[in-house]
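Q: I'm writing a short explainer about Polysaccharide deacetylase family protein for a general audience and would like to include a description of its predicted shape. Could you first generate the structure from this sequence?
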Amino acid sequence: MTSIFDYVLFHFQRLYHLPSPLELGYGPDSPGRVQIRATTSTFFERQQPKPVQTVWKDWQGAQIPLFFDEATDAPWFTQNGQGQVEVQYDLIASAFYLLSGWQEFYGQERDQFGRFPYRASQQARHRFITKPLVNYYLQILREAVELAYGQEVQPRLWQGKPFATCLTHDVDYCQSAWKVAGIPALKKGNLSLFLQLALQKAKGKDAWFNLPQVAQELQRLPAEATFFFLPESAPFEGHPNADYEVTSPPLQQQIKELTAAGHEIGLHGSHGTGSNRRQLQTELGKLPTPVKGNRFHYLRFDPQKSPALLEELGLAYDSSLGFPEHFGFRNSYCHPFRLFHFKERRMTSVWELPLNLMDITLHHPNYLQLTPAEVMPVLTPMLEEIMRFHGVFTLLWHNENFSPYGLEGGLQMFRDITAFVQSKGTAFLSMHAAVAGTEKN
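A: Of course. Here's the predicted structure. Afterward I'll give you a sentence or two in plain language.
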């Protein structure tokens, strides 16, 4: 259980300004000023994806599930005459189970793209996708530390701001608005729209070749963002990749201009690269600027292969772990965290910046199908959770959805979301800046 405790403790130490030295004990043979009771379950010695039972307990008005404890009326923690605080529930085991992605590594269910599906998750089963439960567990542990040490423990902030927002833009398409949006318009009898888009394309500037417009929106905030470029244009097993060549002069120029404006360039690993180190390395070499991070196309993260692959390539971070079917917290955590290497039972050097919301999730026929008026009321509780725990909100908004020919009302929704977090005092950070801020903690 040592690797489990070390993994959770590492992240706990990056959330708060904790007493030093910090004396935490986990299990009966590890005494400390805070003693955390360890489960007697042998779950982590086996390879099953789901715990046998779930116990729910109230914490400050919220119902919190515990996966490795028996039902009991005992308080969360008690204090003895010597000032030692004993945490009565195994917060460490439950936090590790969710944060490490145990259910994905050992779960067998996959969708048509090889992804772990939302429907198979504990988040879907127990409906806590919009609650960052690991943050709740660590907040309970924080209060135990405060009681044991007799002092208030302050959260770590983001350049003095209460929470951070990472705006990210996957550049999948910038040459095919005339076809993707134009041909359906023609079939519906809208000849003028088709001709307008076709004429733009004929003049050498497709309606989705709009990265300067995206940059203008970011400047208005102002915010530095991260753009993930897709270096592969050939289809993979019938699935499309980019509709452009990243090595072409127009794209190279766009990348240089975005970099000059202070934005970060990331790798958008193509279909299949989540388990193909050689292909991902080839694609990395096509980008004209040093790259720190990756997000896989279609969020095709392979729980069994991707963590080691990303570490081998020396990438600092990934941002693929979000469910396309639903916004929220795939690993039940609203901060950057390190990926776990299950085969070697250790933490990797690669940070994960979990993806909380993707534009496609809001309108895709297989996903939520929300109207523009429904978006902010539905998203606000999730955003309030991130603010409560001083976390990071990661938003993916594709460049085509800044145009009138992508997601209906897409530009206004982006403005509404960013205006909301801006009104709450967020720090807008590139992904690498968010990682750097976490590493310093």
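A: For your explainer, you could say: Residues 2-155 form one domain.
Q: Perfect, that's easy to follow.
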